[in-house]
Amino acid sequence: MKKIAILGSTGSIGTQTLEIVRTNKDIKVTALAAGRNIDLLEKQIREFEPKLAAVWSEELASELKSRVRDIQVKILSGMDGLLAVASEQESEILVTAIVGMIGILPTIEAIKAGKDIALANKETLVTAGHIIMPLAEKHHVSILPVDSEHSAIFQSLQGGQRKSLHKILLTASGGPFRGKKREELENIQVEDALKHPNWEMGRKITIDSSTMVNKGLEVIEAKWLFGVTVDQIQVVVQPQSIIHSMVEYEDGAVIAQLGTPDMKLPIQYALYYPERRYLPGERLDFETLTQITFEKPDTETFYGLKLAIEAGKKGGSLPTVFNAANEKAVALFLDRKIRYLQIPEIIRACMEEHKNIADPTVEEILKTEQETYEFIKCRMPRFCK
Fold first, then answer.
1. What pLDDT is attached to residue 199?
2. Range of 155's domain?
3. Is 91 annotated as a binding residue?
4. What's the domain count of the chain?
5. 36 assigned ligand-binding residue
6. 11 among the known binding-site residues?
7. Which of 60, 247, 256, 293 has the most CB atoms within 10 Å of its CB?
8. Is residue 133 part of a domain?
9. Does 163 share its domain with 57?
10. What residues are paired with 116 via a beta bridge?
11. What pLDDT score does 162 carry?
């Protein structure tokens, strides 16, 4: 019996992870954590019977505790709750499907407790990869990528020697605005940006995909996951989302992972690695598949990608600024307080203002995050509310 804990159980990755649990009777959920959706969390607790569950709000935790008083489950709140779920004694693997830098401390706690990490929280490596990867090596813990692209790279690397890796080819769908120029994006509304052509994802990551900021975050994450430089990562637009990423070896051979756009495949692969199991769902049909096309990303229109590559190359605390500025900007856009094209404007302004810290501690990373939020709120008058 494989025992797992999930951070972010009510989100897109969390709910799909639980779909896999439903169809595989040899997985037991020992702990769950969610943000504010206690209605869904209560249903999950009743179905999967974890020993421990947590929500962020103390008030909501109290309400949830009252709702499930007929069940033997411990309810916690806040960061203490997340840390307890991350290090739950019986679990072997932690699925980090929580959104944002709030995932850093629980991931560190889980690693110290000897848990393997099924990583869907890209902010953890983007901002603290220099801390997380050495810590995982020290504690002999595996970091197993759940993002579709990073899972594809990981799977492709099973076909050759890591030391012979020459380049990573990180694919992108191009999002809903592929092919458009800046002047065509002036009046983009929230509803437009949430219409991804291929993937069903949460609101924040869907906006990130539309700006190609998500691909920039994935470049930085890949740098840490696979021990390469940013210059060894090439972003390739593959609009059909059939090739999920590729690796090129020193001899010129390219190995790719192909499949339908279904996040359950990388989730299940991480949970059972190195075993492969049957997964219900649609398969690629090469008799009807007429073409797979490629394009070069437009980093002038979608210059959030260019900013991410800059942050990834410079390193230090700059990726934290990039990530935090984007989080705040996307939140402002979703609240209809800024225009779509102001998202990368805010990121660039924050990066230009920041004095980079070469090797930041966790405390300095979290402080930089708060300073970035404060800069947007108080020193960019257009966005002060």
1. 66
2. 147-270
3. no
4. 3
5. yes
6. yes
7. 247
8. yes
9. no
10. 93
11. 83
Q: Residue 13: pLDDT above 90?
A: yes
Q: What is the CATH number of the domain that holds 322?
A: 1.10.1740.10
Q: Is residue 156 part of an annotated ligand binding site?
A: no
Residue 102 CB-half CA count within 13 A: 18
Q: Sign of the C-alpha dihedral, residues 255, 145, 198, 169?
A: negative
Q: Which helix (H) or strand (E) holds 43?
A: helix 38-48
Please give the span between the terminal C-alpha atoms of the chain, in angstroms, as a whole number. Answer: 51
25 is in an annotated binding site: no
If asked whether residues 242 and 205 sit together in one domain, one would say yes
Reply yes or no on whether the pLDDT at 125 is more than 60: yes
Last residue of some domain: 129, 144, 159? Answer: 144
Of the residues 86, 119, 144, the one at which a domain ends: 144
Establish whether 123 is an annotated binding residue. Answer: yes
The reply to whether 218 sits in an annotated binding site is yes
| Residue 160 labelled as part of a binding site | no
Was 148 annotated as part of a binding site?
Answer: yes
**CA gap 142, 186 in Å, rounded:** 44
Q: Is 200 annotated as a binding residue?
A: no
Sign of dihedral through CA atoms 138, 273, 92, 365?
positive
Annotation-wise, does 215 bind a ligand? Answer: yes
Establish whether 10 is an annotated binding residue: yes
Q: What is the pLDDT of residues 26-65, one digit of tens each?
A: 999 999 999 999 999 999 999 999 999 999 999 999 999 9
Residue 122 annotated as part of some ligand binding site: yes
- Is residue 287 in a domain? no
Q: Is residue 43 part of a domain?
A: yes
Residue 129 lies in a domain: yes
Q: Is residue 173 a known part of a binding site? A: yes
Which of 56-60, 130-134, 325-329, 378-382 comes out lowest in average pLDDT? 378-382
- Model confidence over 165-221: pLDDT tens digits? 999 999 999 989 999 999 999 999 999 999 877 666 778 889 999 999 999 999 999
315's tokens:
């390193």
326 is in an annotated binding site: no
Q: Is 209 annotated for ligand binding?
A: yes
Number of neighbouring beta carbons within 10 Å of residue 165: 19
Give the C-alpha distances (Å, rounded to integers) separating 84 from 123, 162, 367. 20, 35, 23
* Mean pLDDT value of segment 60-77: 97
196 in a known ligand binding site: yes
Model pLDDT, residue 203: 87
Sequence-distant (≥ 6) Cβ neighbours of residue 148 within 8 angstroms: 199, 244, 245, 261, 263, 265, 266
Residue 315 annotated as part of some ligand binding site: no
